[in-house]
Amino acid sequence: SSCNLFLITRAGYKITVIDKSEKDWWKGKCLGGRAGYFPSAYVMRVESGQRTLQVTRNLQLADQTLLRDQIVIQVGEEVDGVAMVRCAADVRSADHTGKEGDVIYKEILCPLKYLQEV
Prior knowledge:
4-stranded mixed beta sheet, SH3 type barrels, 5-stranded antiparallel beta sheet, 11 strands, mainly beta
């Protein structure tokens, strides 16, 4: 399989991580076999059984804004059309404590009718 210098993907694309020895740039492989480097700050870990979903419209939830086309991970069971999802935290929110460049994740309840499977 060929190795490109950088791995160009789209939101929601699944990558298998091969090497995390560099903090900011990880090496990974796409489903089609292409391999290359990608910025570690732009990926979320997806465990077996979790669903990758895309937001279908801008949403204002309790203390978090979700933007159209944003990727979230369903981490909890659906109850009455709502499920717990993991998303990148809104950096303007009061609970953002990481240094610049860090991605902070949070889990929030979200109506599934505004999400679609990727």
